[in-house]
Amino acid sequence: MNNNKNKKRRKQQLVKAGMVILFIGLAVLILIPIYAIFLASFKPGGMLVQYGLNLDIDFKQMSLNNYIVMFFGKHEYWRWFFNSIFLTVATVILTLLVSAFVGYGFAAYDFKGKNILFVCVLIILSIPLEVVMLPLYKQMSEWKIMNSYTAIALPFLAHASTIFFFRQYLMGLPKSLLEAGRIDGATEYGIFFRIIVPIMKPAFAAMAILNGMNSWNNYLWPLLVIRSSEKYTLTLGLNTLLNPYGNNYDLLIVGSFFSIVPIFILFVCFQRYFIEGMTAGAVKG
Amino acid sequence: MKRKLLSVILGLTLMISTLSGCSSKSTETDTAGTVAPTEAAESGISAVGTTEMEVQGDDVTTINVWTFIALHQEFYTKMAENWNEQHPDKKVKLVLSNMQYDDMHNKLSLALESGEGAPDVVDIEVSKFPAFTTGTIGLRDLTDVIAPYKESVVQARLNLYSKDGKFYGLPTHVGATVAFYNDDILKAAGINYEEIKTWDDFKAAGVKYFEATGKYFATVETSAQWMTSLMLVQKGGNYLDADGNLAVNNDKMVEVLTYIKGMQDTGAFGVIPGGQPDTEEAYAAFNAGDYAVQIMPFWQTSRFVNYMADIKGKVGIAPTPVWSTTDGEAQSIGGGGTGTAIIASGPNADLAAEVMAFIKLSPEANKEVWNILGFDPVNTEVWTDTTLTQNPDNQFVQYFKNYPFDTLNAIKDNIGGLSSQTDEKWPSINNEFCTVTLNNIFENGMDIKEALDESQATLENEFQ
Amino acid sequence: MFKKFFYSQKIAPYVFILPFLLTFLCFWIVPISNGVLLSFQDVLKDKWVGAKNYQRLLTDKIFFKAIFHSVRYMIGTLVLLIPFPMLFASLLNSKLMKKPGLFKSIYFIPALTSVVVAGIIFRLMFGELDSSLANRVLTLLGESPIKWLHGELTSFFALLLLCCWRWTGVNILYFTAGLQSISTELFEAASIDGANAWQQFTRISFPLLKPTTIYVVTISIYAGLSMFTESYMLWAGKNSPNNVGLTIVGYLYRQGIEKRALGYACAVGLVLLIIIMFINIIQLILNGTFKKEER
Q1: Integer Cα distance of A45 and B36 in angstroms
Q2: Is the per-residue pLDDT at B459 higher than 50?
Q3: CATH topology of domain C60-294
Q4: Among residues B89, B28, B7, which one has the least CA distance to residue B351?
Q5: Cβ–Cβ contacts within 10 Å for residue A245, how many?
Q6: Confidence (pLDDT) at B296
Q7: ipTM attached to this prediction
Q8: Do A51 and C96 touch (CB under 8 A)?
Q9: How many CB atoms lie within 10 A of CB A285?
């Protein structure tokens, strides 16, 4: 009897050990590319050209030169960086407001055509932007708003998946809350801004992070829209460092590595919301 | 939680670094050959951004310029200052935007299409040029501003940027294809590069070199056609037939590619990392002595100086081999390059054309083309000026074993061209060859005729 | 008068929906209709060409190659990015594992990098030099270095690896979220009944994870079919040798932007739309969504 228990415990410990090894191994594999670029950020660009990206460490060759170039050199990295921050913050705030506005409309009211319209939301959810990219692009050009952040953000302010999430979030809302507001003399819009917005904070946080990540890492659409280099975002700018007429690896690598840093800090601080935001669709959908 | 996460990440980082630290020693010795990175960074080759000239005075016209090589900005600014000194009544202020290569061309075509957002002046790469001289041409006819310089400018180069007898682009250089030999390692293998006259000599020297050293002699190209186009022109071949129809699978093409395949089969010729000599991987390989010869346009000089510092003083420049020394075939063709074009609808198009013609074609400008950029100037007036071409302080003169212009002057009157390169089909043909055809033949071992037929079919489908 | 109208409870919902309605019309319906119209034109020459663009599509081998690559990539991601993350999530969720949160956080890190940065890293790791990371690994395994991004299969491998690297952590999170919505009592009851871990996984976790799985499968299909930036970055914006990295959207970009054949590119886009709508409908039928709504 006792022997049997011991055996079982042993087996369990073995399984445990196996799992720990498996997951640590997976963690190492996943961190290798990040680690490689972290190392590369200390290596001269020429070395990268000659040897490719690998895990070699050679302290004689490594230095902080790339970081010095990044912080003090003559280039537009920081302009891209702040463009990206500006665009991300502006897009996130506007997207959240507009989408919450719409989401609330879907959740709180019954009106003619609601179902059809909601089906439209669901349809958009499943169409990749790439399908409409070119005609949309032509349209922006005809509207003369090319080369502007407006053109990057405008088509996506009423963002289908964000609307969907907010609608799901607000579905469980007691109608009595709205009635109370109406009795207090608030208008329909007043109810939204004064009562609903404050109680949506957690939902905002989750969607802010999801939309923020998308905007920070967005590439294809800005690539089409933006023409002048002073408006480049970070992803666009970094890519311009790759050029058939000479790649600027010194800045490229350290710049790429550094572009992960702000979002990583946000991640460490607001991990819960990241996870909530990312998994929102999976659970509630 | 946060702290723990960080500490574990740090721990893992340390762990991996100690692990890989053990294996890194072996590479220590060969890192000495690293290309000087700071030099490349300082030359600012791919810095992206906008620079504005500072100009004194009231009556100054602002001209917007798009480039995709940052080095050109420096050159244009310097020459524009020169212009302002000489023409105080027509002062200009250049505002230069440098962009990524593909991106700039895409944006230009879109800007021309929508009639919005185009610059006044733009550098268009030669292989993209025909795309802008098709349909409604948005570029200004530059025949009038070229006229004063036309006598002394290499005609083949002007033709590359022309359509129906009108010139739309101002060339930066001739880009005459020449041969760059690493003389030191060739001598050690008992080869005198000056004796190589024909492709057969070239091939035989390759085999000899390979037997002596076990290293590759020269590269077989898969991502460019510097040598392929040259050999084709020398044979009198083309990518199109006499009526301008697509004919990439013609007999002369097959002959040329078969010959190159024969070179590859000897084992002495290999595909260089990067697929052609003008890539970073190839600079590194050549710098390390893994390859001995490059057949490249003259402007490769600037790549040698910037990226292949270890073989300084060892490289000699010579005319390229030919099929036969007696039939008077072309000794070289112009390769690569950018044509500076003026947007016809721009408000200052006429002034911009005049200024840019000065900046790119005048003798004083062409001296600077050599001094700053290390290119072979299109205005051959300056080719014979030995105070310029043999200036001991010039970094390009210092780098090479012989005087680069000696070779240029030797081939001066025999620089050919390919009519297909100005055809609207050229960008697609070139792209097909450099991504599919040559790869199929030299990497995947596909039958030459079969590979060409396949590409012909692909291209026909595109042009139908 | 207007104010009263605007503030009435009947009109308010439409005001709330208005931003979406405008977006839907201006940025989806209009572009898609325009796309349909453009696909019957030669935009550069500004003339109608009938079905010529579609005829050309049917004989365009490169286009079929692009479709093949996209579909292959999609299937590859489905095969790798559904079962493994599900299994990992179940293991991490079991009581045996210590500090599951930490591992989940680490696995999530790649998702924080943009595709541009990830592409740059992987391009350099899979460089053709002997000393690049991928070739080092090959050498360790006793193979000789290869040109990863030249071969049809090796570059597919690199693309898949890039995708797995970025998404394994995210999918683990999805499945964890799904697992956490399953009551622990179920597992406890099963455990008392003598079900082992594997039986618990197949009998409880797997069936109850169905909604999550459907969601993950759906986004994987759309993301897989419309993949572009990954391959664009892996070949540094250039066309890949022998088009080994060409995808449907890549072809759309090449034709529409690089070659300025906007009409042809729109035809490519519509084919993609049709494929996606087709899959959409199949999925809805398979999931029985239609039936549910009838009830």
Answers
A1: 9
A2: yes
A3: MetI-like fold (1.10.3720)
A4: B89
A5: 18
A6: 96
A7: 0.87
A8: no
A9: 17
Cβ atoms of B269 and B293 within 8 Å: the answer is no
- Return d(Cα B122, Cα B64) in angstroms, integer: 8
Q: Residues B342-397: pLDDT tens digits? A: 999 999 999 999 999 999 999 999 999 998 888 999 999 899 998 899 999 999 99
C-contacting chains (≥3 CB pairs under 8 Å)? A, B
Start-to-end Cα distance in chain B: 63
**Of the CATH numbers 1.10.3720.10, 1.20.1250.20, 3.40.50.300, 3.40.50.1100, which one belongs to the domain with range A76-284?**
1.10.3720.10
Are A250 and B37 a contacting pair, CB within 8 Å? yes
Q: Which of B395-409, C37-51, C52-66 has the lowest mean pLDDT?
A: C37-51
pLDDT mean across residues, chain C = 88
Half-sphere exposure of B83 (CA within 13 A, CB side): 28
Say if residue B32 is exposed, middle or buried (CB neighbours under 10 Å; 0-12, 13-18, 19+). exposed
Cβ of B281 and C237 within 8 Å?
Answer: no
Residue A281 confidence class, pLDDT cut points 50, 70, 90: low
Nearest to A257 by CA among C113, C235, B2: C113
Q: In this complex, which of C60, C99, C258 lies closest to B461 when CB atoms are compared?
A: C60
User: What would the pLDDT profile of A127-164 be if each residue is shown by its tens digit?
Assistant: 888 889 999 988 988 888 888 999 999 998 999 988 98
End-to-end CA distance of chain A: 48
Task: Quote the CA–CA distance of B406 and B399 in Å, as a whole number.
Answer: 15
User: What average pLDDT does chain B have?
Assistant: 86
Ranges in chain A annotated CATH 1.10.3720.10: 76-284
Query: Over 80: is that where the pLDDT of A213 sits?
Result: yes
From the list B420, B421, B422, B386, the residue with the least C-alpha distance to B405 is B386
Shortest distance, CA A105 to any CA of chain C (angstroms): 5
B47 — pLDDT class (breaks 50, 70, 90) = very low
Using CB atoms and an 8 Å cut-off, which of residues 254-283 of chain B contact chain A?
Answer: 280-281, 283
CA distances to A244, B88, B273, C46, C163 from C127, rounded to whole Å, are 16, 53, 9, 43, 18
Q: Within 13 A of C186's CA, how many CA atoms are on the CB side?
A: 14
Question: What domains sit in chain B, N to C, each tagged with a CATH number?
Answer: 49-173+336-399 (3.40.190.10), 177-333+425-463 (3.40.190.10)
Contact B45, B69 (CB under 8 A): yes
- CB contact under 8 Å between C241 and B443, yes or no, is yes
**B17 has pLDDT over 70:** no
> Quick one: pLDDT at residue C288?
64
Query: Does residue A222 contact residue A91 with C-beta atoms inside 8 Å?
Result: no
Residues C108-122 as b or e (16 or more Cβ within 10 Å = b): bbbbbbbbbbbbbbb
- What do you get for the CA distance between the two ends of chain C, in Å? 43
B109-127 as b/e: b if 16+ CB within 10 A: bbbbbeeebbbbbbbbbbb
Alpha carbons C90 and C158: distance in angstroms, whole number: 27
**Cα pseudo-dihedral C178, C179, C184, C190, rounded to 10:** 120
Q: Distance (Å) from the C-alpha of residue A241 to the closest C-alpha of chain B?
A: 6
**Mutation for C interface: A14, A134, A175, A284, most C CBs within 10 A:** A134
CA distance B322 to B328: 9
The pLDDT score that the predictor gives to residue A247 is 64
The DSSP letter of residue B413 is G
Chain position carrying tokens 């290293």: B215
**Contact predicate C66/C247, CB 8 Å:** yes
pLDDT, tens digit, for every residue of A23-33? 999 999 999 99
